Amino acid sequence: MTHIASKKELSFEDFKTEILNDYKIAVTSRECSLLGRREVLTGKAKFGIFGDGKEVPQLAMAKAFKNGDFRSGYYRDQTFMMAIGQMSIQQFFAGLYGHTDIDHDPMSAGRQMGGHFATHSLNEDGSWKNLVMQKNSSSDISPTAGQMPRLLGLAQASKIYRNVTGINNKTNFSINGNEIAWGTIGNASTSEGLFFETINAAGVLQVPMVMSVWDDEYGISVHARHQTTKENISEILKGFQRDAENKGYEIIRVKGWDYPALITAYEQASQIAREEHVPVLIHVQELTQPQGHSTSGSHERYKNEERLAWEADFDCLRQMKLWMIATNMASPEELEEIDNAIKKEVLEGKKAAWNAFVEPVKNEQKELISILETIANSSDNKVFIEKYSNELKAIKEPIRKDILSTARKVLRIIVKENGRNQLAKWIEKYTETIQKKFSSNLFSESDKNVFSVKEVLPTYDESAEQVDARLIIRDNFDAIFSKYPETLVFGEDAGNIGDVNQGLEGMQEKYGELRVADVGIREATILGQGIGMALRGLRPIAEIQYLDYLLYAIQIMSDDLATLQYRTRGKQKAPLIIRTRGHRLEGVWHSGSPMGMIINAIRGIHVLVPRNMTKAAGFYNTLLETDEPALVVECLNGYRLKEKMPTNMGDFKTPIGVVETLKEGKDITLVSYGSTLRLVEQAAKELLEVGIDVEIIDVQSLLPFDVNHDIVKSLAKTNRLLVVDEDVPGGASAYILQEILDVQNGYRHLDSKPETLASKPHRPAYGTDGDYFSKPSVEDIYEKVYAIMSEVNPSKYPSLF
Length: 801
Description:
Blueprint: H1 12-41, H2 55-64, E1 70-72, H3 78-83, H4 89-97, E2 136-137, H5 148-163, E3 181-186, H6 193-205, E4 209-214, E5 218-219, E6 222-223, H7 233-236, E7 250-255, H8 259-276, E8 280-285, H9 305-313, H10 316-326, H11 332-377, H12 382-393, H13 400-413, H14 420-439, E9 466-468, H15 469-483, E10 487-491, H16 507-511, E11 516-518, H17 523-535, E12 539-543, H18 554-561, H19 564-567, E13 577-582, H20 595-601, E14 606-608, H21 613-623, E15 630-635, E16 642-644, E17 660-663, E18 668-672, H22 676-688, E19 694-698, E20 701-703, H23 710-718, E21 721-724, H24 732-743, E22 755-757, H25 770-774, H26 778-792
Parallel strand pairs: 1-2, 1-3, 3-4, 4-8, 7-8, 10-11, 10-12, 12-13, 13-15, 14-15, 18-19, 18-21, 21-22
Antiparallel strand pairs: 5-6, 9-16, 14-20, 17-19
């Protein structure tokens, strides 16, 4: 769309047409907000949070937003989405109702509440669209400031595409790094640490990011004086302002009701960020919130009469209307006519969305009622079936819960009758069909998912010597960076010194500071860099120095990365690899074992726990051929251990979700992973001395877990099970036990009680003895296995204690 600043090139009539079109979009958005609130209050929608009061600045942002650009935003940006042509009236209401059809609610197919916006980056088969030919929005999340870390990565991708050689052919992702990442946030949410961490990082990295702060002086009911020092975010960020000697931000302040000033501000910001790769902060002040924060309550409860009167006067739509009249863009009568026409259009769009939402469900309702009536005619329980059928028939606007619940209750009544099979089959088919609408796409369903990659074993020269294992990781990364020019790694100490364990030694010197980069101590935005760059077609490896520090980033991993494919119903992906190191070192903060917390917080990300560096390297090689995110936990105490050096670096692949049997045995199956396996192997040798033959299985992958169900095959032979884990009791060991006993039905083969051996409930103490007295030791494992066998055969294995 032509910028208003270029009006000299337009005739007055063309210029007027453009302004009127903007006004129509703003009014449409406002009417959607007003009617949307009523839909919630009448019960048709569950919750509403709208963009009223923010319409005019979003028009300005949309004018400066170009194909290839990305938005990472705030759940009040509906006007912007309408202005860039990515949301219609009907789609707005479909999102409000939670329509599970992606064609009706393209933002999330009903998986997120309204106000959470996204565009489609992927084709139906999961392959990338041409992102430079469309306007893009990364998928929103609700946690305040949660959009900030990914915004950093979206902007950094442009810097990479502009400055790294070898990826210039990826023109469906970037044209010379000219794309801007546009961020939006409410003023109250700038109090979050993620906002400040991202702002600082963007200033350091000097990336093309334009950050808009929508400032209406409140965070729900809490005034800015309780939120922000000096009640002014741009004031306290003045130290970031660039000058002749120092790089930094360009900071712009503009009134949110001043349409021409907003157009100028956004055009200026766009030019600076796009051409110079300098981040820009736009503080949009004096905005209003006509309906309050959300449908949860009224803003009259916390705003005084003076504030409410000011908001009515300085409502951005009112001020835009006054400006248009004053400049002869339109007469009051013309604008009133536009307003009335749009009200009708929005009402019709709302009705169409509601009909599209309820009609399929009504058809499903009729289908079940027909089946129930047929069954009732030949049933001894006809009266009861008809009661349920009539109750369902009386529901004018049913939901699918009503339908399926009714069917399942009737099934109980006819369990011994002939009609049972017909109804049972209908329930199974209906459940399978409908459940997918709510549960698909947690992981990739494309032909590049992790199960598409076959195992390739490492090869060795006959004279292969044992080397420090960190050299295997190093040389494999060298092969990766050479093979995949779009790969890059970044983290604390990852660059100049080649990471704290020298797994990246010499890589920065060879591949440059942009591909092998040091970053500041800021784990959340390290993850955000990775998510944003992965959303734009790069293959980033984000390094978190120690597993325990992952907790700084767990919210971003859990709320953003892990849910991305799910909440977009497979329309966006970010195949980020997270590299860290953990297991069995010293003390509370470097012991690396809160695995239960991690695997239950990040469903949607694969969690890989290789026992050595060859296995770890193989996982990286596998992941780079897939389109899914994963966490790889290298063994912290394994870098100096000796392993043979493979000859096929970059090519051997560790299969994901496949366990490995390290030792066969007949008496008991021991299941473990990571560094603890070395203790299990030692205990197994000592147990063999007293005649106990242990089978050892390396899990290798916690998510996914043993997809071939090989562990239960072991139990069929040994009939006993011990899970050994260095997490707290009830952590990863409980998860593993549930997978084996419940999912794999391993209980059928057990002759002894299944047992777990975990660490103490506290974090490990420091010092040489800290590990021994805090986590399972060789003796602990030996004695646990011995006690199980003692119960089986006390005469052969008399009790030790």
